[in-house]
Amino acid sequence: MAAAGADGSAARLDGRLDGTIRPNDRRGKEYVVSSTLDRVDWNAELLRGDLGEAVQQLKRESGKGLFVGGVKLPLALTELGLIDEYEFVVQPRLAGHGPTLFAGLSKHVDLRLVAGWSSARGRWRCGMSREASHWAC
User: Fold this and answer.
1) Is a pLDDT exceeding 60 seen at residue 36?
2) By the 8 A CB rule, do 80 and 6 touch?
């Protein structure tokens, strides 16, 4: 899939672009973005064509927001300016290896904390927004 940034520049999508998009309410169809799959099973649809246009259409249709999963897909959508709010779930374990989220991002994206949660199992989540971003502690 080809993607272009909000300023018209091409998003740098090195290697495979794999990930999923699903409605925020966890109901309905899951949408799969893949550079390797030809088909998907069950309640899923393979997105084809222009990534930016497809995601903008899903955002308009959903009305309740979308969850995005994967490593390269969030990077591509960030480059396109299509992610309004980020929710990070952090596991209480340092691995020292594995994929890095947003590696290769072409410009900084300032975020502000909009919500934070922790679980009894030691996980924590933080909701971050790019709207009215500022650094404050």
Assistant:
1) yes
2) yes
